Amino acid sequence: MFADLSHKSKYMHIYLYNGSKDKLEPFKKSLMDWMGEDINVHIAPTPEEAINDADIVITATTSHDPVFPDFPHMLKNKLFIGIGSFQPGMWEFPQSLYTIADALFVDTEHAIVESGDITIPLEKDWITKDSIMTMTRHIEKKRLRLIVIINPEQPCLNQREWHYSTL
């Protein structure tokens, strides 16, 4: 995911947090080797500091408890992408995120029963099944057309420019 964004701006900042502190430096090094020196990679001491100035928050944990504190003011106006909670007991997001979310998308209908970030809020009545939409349904509903243009100067798959337009 990061690689697709890396060529957009040399001012990009990535903040990393992991409960296992010893894994952060090696991951930071491999990320910088992969993405290049124009990206600023920082190690955040807390999850709060990792998301404080973020526009996009990506979680990839197998946590059984929310990774972030339940503070709506810290979660507002951000895009959250959770890829770690792939079993019903795994859970990355706090309750307030569901309360303030404008939309809730899943990749497939199976995620509604497989992902703890969906099953737990459904069980606790924080969301309804009607509030969940698959990405496919959203794209069809919006009649969104995806145009992929590969930069001929850098033909690697991780150097794509994505352009969206509404029909």
Automatic annotation (TrEMBL):
It holds the Pfam family OCD_Mu_crystall. InterPro entries: NAD(P)-bd_dom_sf, ODC_Mu_crystall. It comes from the Bacteria. This is Uncharacterized protein. It comes from Lentibacillus halophilus. The lineage of its organism: Bacteria, Bacillati, Bacillota, Bacilli, Bacillales.
